[in-house]
Design a protein that fits this description.
By secondary structure, this protein is an alpha+beta fold. Among the domains are: 191 residues, Heat Shock Protein 90, CATH 3.30.565.10; 129 residues, Ribosomal Protein S5, domain 2 (2-Layer Sandwich); 87 residues, MutL, C-terminal domain, regulatory subdomain (Ribosomal Protein S8, Chain: A, domain 1, 2-Layer Sandwich), CATH 3.30.1370.100. The chain is 35% helix and 23% strand. The strands form five sheets. Strands 5-4-3-6-2-1-7-8 form an eight-stranded mixed sheet. Strands 9-10-13-11-12 form a five-stranded mixed sheet, sandwiched between helices. Helix 1 crosses helix 5, helix 15 packs across helix 17 and helix 17 packs antiparallel against helix 18. The radius of gyration is 31 Å and the shape is elongated. The protein binds adenosine-5'-triphosphate (ATP) and magnesium ion.
Length: 591
């Protein structure tokens, strides 16, 4: 057995440094975080040799006094934590207190710092972790950290670095992420003597955030961003997401921040994709910049030394929050855009007038529910609060008028000088689907015991499958018993299934979905809800009166996924006033 030897301090600190300082970009990330933690509103960065020769970060933050300046290079020196109790309440991620020490262990560092409002500052120079020189210097308020000859004493690390172009790319990504997370801070990058990036400080609030996102990700991306905001318990989420027209061909434009620090999370990504649904994405990807504010006690960031991965204490809450915010952002972004080619539109009815909608939603576009014997189901209440109500999308906003029903299938409205048309069946399906989904989420099953059980004949294979899935079927509102060869007896069903044929058809579909191993239970449920919504919704060729048409529109305006029915068909088509004017060759009317 070889003898155990205690590691030399210098060797140990180099190994420890390797965890935090992987490449020039990781050094820069730490320095920017420090500047932001120090309250800087302007951060200037300069690099030479892709950050290997020189990496300089100047900020206008609080600055440090002489004592702090000396201390900040020591390992485990931090101003952010004094006792173990601070760990939970710390709102920044910087609690390792080792970044500067780690950088300093593998480079030559000079820090010049002076407190705000003081003309006198101090400069320290250190190399390979040892302070070499300390001197007074003129100060302008703030801190400049200069890192030279990175990895000069760890040649293996230096060799591991990729081309200058690649390393510069990583540096730019770090600055872009910091700029997305801190829109009120100005960032500038000078690389190899040339100005490369310049993000002026943006205004506070939503518009400021949006304009910063457009500066960083490009105007083309910025113009298609919708905004969503949600909160639950101690989590707040603000999110900008591309509308359908702004989907892109790769995932590059997705950024997540927790308490303003960039993080990677499959959970958040999955929620984003789930909210869009495959029929909208069709191989394309959403742009998304999401900002989560969470109490530090509700997540753990130290799963990785580079601090990019975090673990949420309550993953389900976070997942649902993202889904809701994305869905709402998309619903609110809907504008009349789609053209109805060669469509026939009836002349305006004389005497029609602009008016607002009645506030109570009438549910008469849905088939009435039979009284549920087993479970009581208050179905009439829309799921949204008044607060959410205020954020209804523009094109749903009164005043508008109902022009009539055409083909006994489509409802035509005028809004903001344009025309939009609802497919009455698809729109009702969409509303009911969400309503039933909300009930299911609350654990309320739509089920009605039948006075006379219905016998349904099914292929033998499906009968045994259905009996295996009895418990899952119960959760969907069905109660079944086996009833001899090739038959089952249904004693309770969701109340929208009125006819024996409907019950049989629904059970067939569900059994087939259960037999397909690729279909998850969640997907089986989704499909079954879609079937219920389809059965309950008003059909094409049914007459709808004005009140019912308006009630449907009002309910649709509150839906989270208003644009498509659960089968993916559009619920509405629209022709806005600009397009109308353009089509009639009235350029003067375009404004
Ligand atoms: N640009 C700066 N302006 C003012 N103070 C700074 C600056 N950079 C560093 N400091 C001070 O130096 C301390 C040590 O910084 P360092 O980055 O090593 O650790 P930390 O930020 O506390 O934690 P972490 O290791 O997670 O980054 C900070 O806590 C802060 O007090
Ligand atoms: Mg730090």
């Amino acid at each position: 057995m070889p003898k155990i030897l205690k590691m030399d301090e210098a060797v140990f600190s180099k190994i420890a440094a390797g965890e935090v300082v992987e490449r020039p970009a990781s050094v820069l990330k730490e320095l920017i975080e420090n500047s932001i933690d120090a309250g800087a509103t302007r951060i200037e960065i300069e690099i030479q040799g892709a950050g290997k020769i020189l990496l300089r970060v100047s900020d206008n933050g609080t600055g440090m006094d002489r004592e702090d300046l000396r201390l900040c290079l020591e390992p485990h020196a931090t101003s952010k934590i004094k006792s173990i109790e601070d760990l939970d309440s710390l709102s920044t991620f910087g609690f390792r207190g080792e970044a500067l020490a780690a950088v300093c262990a593998v480079s030559e560092v000079t820090i010049l710092s002076s407190l705000q409002g003081e003309s006198q500052g101090w400069r320290v120079k250190a190399q390979a972790g040892k302070i070499k020189e300390e001197s007074p210097a003129a100060g302008t308020g703030g801190t400049t950290v200069e890192v030279r000859n990175l990895f000069f004493n760890t040649p293996a690390r230096l060799k591991f670095l990729k081309s200058d172009e690649f390393e510069r790319g990583r540096i730019i990504s770090v600055i872009e992420e910091a700029a997305l997370a801190n829109h009120e801070v100005a960032f500038f990058l000078q690389a190899e003597g040339k100005k490369r990036l310049g993000f002026e400080a943006a205004q506070e609030g939503k518009e400021g955030e949006k304009s910063r996102i457009a500066m960083v990700l490009g105007e083309a991306v910025g113009q298609y961003l919708a905004f969503g905001e949600e909160s639950e318990k101690s989590i707040n989420l603000r999110l900008f997401v591309s509308t359908e027209a702004g989907l892109v061909s790769n995932r590059k434009y997705q950024h997540w921040f927790v308490n303003r620090r960039p993080i990677d999370s499959r959970l958040l990504q999955q929620a984003l994709y789930r909210a869009f649904g495959p029929h909208i994405l069709q191989g394309r990807h959403p742009v998304c910049v999401g900002y989560l504010e969470i109490s530090p006690a509700d997540f753990d960031v130290n799963v990785h030394p580079a601090k990019r991965e975090i673990r949420f204490k309550n993953e389900g809450d976070v997942f649902n929050l993202i889904m809701r915010a994305v869905s709402r952002a998309l619903a609110q972004s809907l504008r009349p855009q789609v053209l109805v080619k060669d469509s026939y539109l009836p002349p305006l009815r004389p005497g029609s007038h602009l008016e607002s909608l009645a506030l109570e939603p009438a549910s008469s576009y849905s088939a009435p529910l039979r009284t549920a014997a087993a479970v009581s189901l208050p179905l009439g209440e829309p799921a949204l609060s008044q607060e959410e109500d205020r954020r209804t999308p523009d094109w749903f906003t009164p005043p508008y008028r109902y022009l009539g029903q055409i083909e006994r299938s489509y409802l035509v409205f005028e809004a903001a000088g344009g025309i939009f048309v609802l497919d009455q069946h698809a729109a009702a399906e969409c509303v009911l689907f969400e309503r039933y989904g909300d009930l299911l989420l609350q654990g309320r099953v739509l089920s009605e015991r039948l006075i006379l059980p219905v016998a349904v004949s099914l292929p033998a294979s499906l009968v045994s499958l259905i009996m295996d899935q009895k418990k899952n079927l119960f959760d969907l509102g069905f109660e079944v018993e086996s009833f001899g060869k090739g038959m089952i007896q249904v004693t309770a069903t969701p109340p929208m299934l009125k006819k024996e044929k409907d019950v049989e058809e629904a059970l067939h579909k569900i059994a087939e979905d259960f037999s397909d191993l690729k279909t998850s239970l969640a997907e089986v449920r989704r499909k079954s809800l879609a079937t219920m919504a389809c059965k309950a919704a008003v059909k094409a060729h049914d007459f709808l009166g004005e009140e019912e048409a308006k009630a449907l529109l009002l309910d649709l305006s509150k839906a989270r996924q208003a644009r498509n029915c659960p089968h993916g068909r559009p619920t509405m088509l629209a022709l806005n006033r600009i397009e109308l004017a353009r089509r009639f060759g009235r350029p003067g009317a375009i404004s």
